Amino acid sequence: MRATALRRSGIALLLGVGLVAIASAVPDNRVLLMNTFLAYGALVLSLDLMVGDLNLLPAGHAAFFGAGGYASVVLNQEAGWPLPLAGGVAIVACALVAAVIGFPVVGRTAGMSFAVVTFAIGELMVQIISKSPELLGGTQGLTVTWGVGDEMPFGFSIYRYYSLWLVAVFVMVMLSVVWVRSSHLGLRLTAIRDDENAARGLGFNPVVYKTLIFAIASGLAAAVGVMWAPMVGYIGPDSMGTTESIFLLSLLIVGGLRSVGGALAGVLLLMVAPLYFELEPTVRIAMVGGALAIIALVEPRGIAGLARRATDRLPVLRRAA
Amino acid sequence: MTTPVLELRDVSVRIGGVQILSDVDMVVGEGECVGVIGPNGAGKTTLFNVTSGFMRPTTGTVLLGGSRIDGVRPHRVARLGMVRTFQNVGGFGDLTVRQNLVLATRGRHEGRIEQAGALLSLDGSWDIAVKDCSLATRKLVGIAVAIVREPRVLLLDEPLAGLATEDRDHVVEMIRRVHTEGTTICLIEHDIRRTRALVDRLLVLDAGRKVAEGSPEELGARNDLVEAYLS
Amino acid sequence: MSELLLTLLLGIMQAGLYTLVGLGLTITFGVTHILNFAHGEFVTIGAFALIGFSTMVGTAAAIPLALLVAVALGALVYLLGFVFTIGNHLQGLAFSLGLLLFTENIFLELFSSIPRNGPRVDGTLALLGGEQIAWSRVVVIITTAALVTVAAIALKRTWVGLALRATGDDRFAASTLGLSAKRVGLYAFLVAAVLAAVAGMCIASVSPVTPAIGVSYLLTGFVVAIIGGLGSPEGVLMAALLLGIVEALTSRYIDPSMTSVYTYSLMVVVLLALPQGLFNRKVVRAG
Question: pTM for this one?
């Protein structure tokens, strides 16, 4: 088990190195596309820890992404904390908030109440932000002043500089997913997903594990927000609403649960490709919706399931495996 | 009787207006194998739920090794050494046989896993996902998952339910092996004939009350019991 | 006094709309175990069909036409989609999420996000004490109250209502009575579509609407369905009344701009204290 974990971490790190190389080489007009892939990839993978590994259904993942961004920007601009400290505190605070909210709700058998509480928390955050124009910029959002006119390290543009940070977050999420899935924790999560009572009967308290994963996933989403906000120079409440959270869920389900490759394929196909072809947002989201509706009927395991079917059909590949 | 490990004293359970268990006493001694039998609705599963912490008795106490465990939550009861299997399940379907055992030992005690696999003849199917195993194998995986935790008491909830005749004999043989290795066992079963052959002591429940208790031979000599419950 | 009366009436109006939307969610969930995220789109369809048809053929003819459109679309999404997902929670959920994103954005393309007004009943009604309430709001209150009453009686007395409740209680037992879960599921979707479309028409006749109306009522619909305990029609009514009146009172007496903050806080508190909802009858699983 440790061997698998190490091998997969190695792959994740190699991928990270590759991404750094790509990030410093992509043409200027494509850097934002690259950053979108990294951020959404990281968000969807962290979401999968809850949905795929535990059958938890959060309807407020984007809220923690936004909360991370807001917290770090406010701590940096209003309280004057250095950016790394502000970001770190934002991430830890979001994870703790998730744990505090999650603990009473997550363990009840009515899993839908988890969806609704996360939804309510998300909407509450959006409302609080919209109603605090002085501190949080209200519905207009906050402009990030950090880095404006400054020289970035390595002579990079601000977008390209933040690509590196987003690669770091992406790799961190990949490593978290790898370690959760190929460790004893992964076995426990699978057991809880399979049969909560039987897992209790072995001495594992499902509430503790669900709270833990909710906290980790929310912390990771916050980490993406911390890097995203200064990159685009702006953060607003529209990026953290329920629709955005549902959109993330859609990307994940189209890609396929519990499959890193599938999830990333979903992001590439439904998020990055439409941006590349410069489709209008409404058309793009309608397309994601259509894809999700169709794939839900045809292959509920998503792109990963389609890929598995295709390889099963090819006798050569099967013999090789 | 040997030193008692598990003791239920005057346990009653009442849900809504229904009395499910009334003043049941049960003692399981170190190294014993006790069978609980009785018709459907007698309260057997409730008895197990109370014993393993999934239900709280309305009145009465449950003691494990002398300390009270009634009202303690199930995962804590499990950590105190009481491990149970569930009626229709054996092991976790999405995990392989070996992963199930690794899960149960919390990643330690590699030796115990090998031992349990050998004891229950599971070593041929280590890397098969449990959901792809036969029902008999699943039941054995369920038992293996329990014994690698070296329980002070092993509670088996209908280990033979749903099995074909030849599989039943095999599973009974495996439970006997586990018992011979020194594990204290308490089991619920509907297959009276095989239970009588397997256990040291029988406890008969009906309508929430204990109606008889004794060795299979003693109870087998009482015609009233044989007619009502033991055939 | 009169001000309080007006506030309560407005709260009851909102409560009626929430009940109509929440009832559909709860009935479809009870029967098919599908949590339909696309349910709010029937509200949008009702609202925009009414607005569209009333400019073409007049309000009187527009109402049945709009209902017909909603019923047809309800049957369509059920027969082409949801019926295949019965028995697989995640599949049904994924299909409805897809449908939600698809239809919402198609409607945005078709109708743009500029607010539109539906037909209005002119004039106001003077309440005791001098406050005025618009007749169109009174009509909405009467319509929703009547429809909720009809729905409540229909659920108890008619064959379809009994079929819906029996299947919701125990699918296997219901199938032994010759009730096919798939057939009853169709009834559930049709009833839900009609109730939501009526809600949509009511909304369009009292306030300006955009295609986002569906999602916002979907969310409140979920709130009342879940606080009420999924699968319980009485729970929906109680939760909707609670929510509508709290909303109206806070916006009148505390701070109108903070209404949504209070309602969402209330919801979080209720759910943290009673995660099963106020009137839960059955255990619900995620996914």
Answer: 0.86
